[in-house]
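Morning F.,

Quick status update on the modeling queue. The single chain you submitted on Monday has been processed. Sequence for confirmation:
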Amino acid sequence: MSKFAEKIEEEVTSWEGVTKRRGKFGTIEFRLGRYVLGKLPLAGLVDERTIIQRMRDAYERAQDRLDRGAGVTV
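Structure tokens below.
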């Protein structure tokens, strides 16, 4: 695994409730509950900042959906 992939994995899995698992075709899949935040290819180049921001945005959307689904109001 590249240093970029390791840094992305470290950052994204530090977010509350995020899990990772091996995805299809040599990827790592990051999830928050039933929501897939994103997939990280283990081979090839990725833009670390872009992928972290995309996953952060997906994480925030998933949190909002989970909160609404649980009847939690803000």
